[in-house]
Amino acid sequence: MRLIFLGPPGAGKGTQAKLLTERYGIPQLSTGDMLRAAVAQATEVGKRAKAVMDAGQLVSDEIVNEIVSDRIDQPDCAKGFILDGYPRTVPQAIALGKMLEGKGLKLDAVIELKVDEAALVKRMENRVAETIAAGGTVRSDDNPEAFKRRLTEYREKTAPLSEHYAGTGQLRTVDGMAEVNTVTAEIEKILA
């Protein structure tokens, strides 16, 4: 099972990916984690990524695509994987499609969690209040202004992926505003 989750920040992608990872025993592949691992392991592509990051620049699509390709080749991905935070752009999605095709693989589904943005802001504010009440630490980007910037960036850069994957016939949408268990049940129906 090879999946991509789409949706704005706070839509519940991480929650759903974690549940599916536990249920199906497939890894959740986060670009941030993959990048850090490649750098830590000093792989060839990891060394190139480190040089770029040390220069204070953003890692190119080419390097990110190569890191994802290397990670997908690992034994724990044999039964499948869930991509988290990748692809972020249509060019990355096109590169991913070619990469998978070259490996004789294909995506089983691209699942978009549809959400109301105003409700997302409220959800984020509630999460912050609950974290504070429990004595936890609040993420630095969990404030209304930063969250709205993340939503804007999502709309501009990542939202076009929906149209791309709709065009390939792989996009499935789920109401991300429903209760967690309801969302999971809808995703399970898609995967059945």
UniProtKB/TrEMBL annotation:
Residues the record lists as binding AMP: T31, R36, Q57, L58, V59, G85, Y86, P87, R88, Q92, R139, R150
Pfam family name, one: ADK
Gene Ontology CC: cytoplasm
One MF annotation (Gene Ontology) recorded for this entry: AMP kinase activity
Binding site for ATP: G10, A11, G12, K13, G14, T15, R127, A178
Pathway stated in the Swiss-Prot or TrEMBL entry: Purine metabolism; AMP biosynthesis via salvage pathway; AMP from ADP: step 1/1
Entry keywords, A to Z: ATP-binding, Cytoplasm, Kinase, Nucleotide biosynthesis, Nucleotide-binding, Transferase
Subcellular location: Cytoplasm
GO biological process, one term: AMP salvage
Residue ranges of the region described as NMP: 30-59
Catalysis: reaction(s): AMP + ATP = 2 ADP
Function: Catalyzes the reversible transfer of the terminal phosphate group between ATP and AMP. Plays an important role in cellular energy homeostasis and in adenine nucleotide metabolism.
Self-association state and partner proteins as the record states: Monomer.
Family: Belongs to the adenylate kinase family.
Name the UniProt record assigns to this protein: Adenylate kinase
Biological source species: Ensifer adhaerens (Sinorhizobium morelense)
